[in-house]
Amino acid sequence: MHRRVEVRGTASPEAAWARYERFDAWPGWAPHIRRVEADADEIRPGVRGTVHGPAGLRVAFRIDAVDRARRTWSWTVWVLGHRLILFHDLTAEDDGTRAGVDLDGPALLVGPYAPFTRWPLRRLVQAAGH
């Protein structure tokens, strides 16, 4: 199943990218993420790790591609024995940034997770202090 989610916010594309780029920043815009353990500090192809969520939930991941110039990146996560691929992109707009994510995977993961992604994405593109 495939779903696309987009949100808009007033943060600059550079600020939003900085939040994406460093794993230690993820809990700040994605509060369902408690912490990230990875074999690097920043997203880059081949990095592997684990996202720690609420109630002891742990999700293994691999960063598949990163294009800093285009502000895009993708990763694969494994949830309940199923693979979910997420492709993220940031686009400059007149008044801020549009953040998008494409989700590809089994309907049992994509269906419920796609609407949920709006909340952290809105926080990602929210200007500081708002």
Strand count: 7
In total, the number of domains comes to: 1
Give the helix tally: 4
Return the structural class: alpha+beta
What is the share of helical residues? 10-25%
Which percent range describes the beta-strand content? 35-45%
Shape: globular
CATH class (first level) name: Alpha Beta
The biggest sheet, with number of strands, parallel, antiparallel or mixed sense and barrel status, is: 7 strands, antiparallel
* Unreliably modeled segments: none
Supply the CATH architecture: 2-Layer Sandwich
Spatial strand sequence of the major β-sheet: 1-7-6-5-4-3-2
Q: What pattern of helices and strands is seen along the backbone? A: EHHEEEEEEHH
Q: What is the overall pLDDT average? A: 95
**CATH fold type:** Alpha-D-Glucose-1,6-Bisphosphate, Chain A, domain 4
Structure at a glance:
With 130 residues, the protein is of the alpha+beta class.
Structure report:
There is one protein chain. With 130 residues, this protein is α+β, with helices and mostly antiparallel strands. It has one domain (2-124): Alpha-D-Glucose-1,6-Bisphosphate, Chain A, domain 4, CATH 3.30.530.20. The protein is built from four helices and seven strands. It has a seven-stranded antiparallel beta sheet with strand order 1-7-6-5-4-3-2, covered by helices on one side. Strand 5 (72-79) and strand 6 form a beta hairpin. The longest helix is centred in the last third of the chain and has 10 residues, at 107-116. The mean pLDDT is 95.
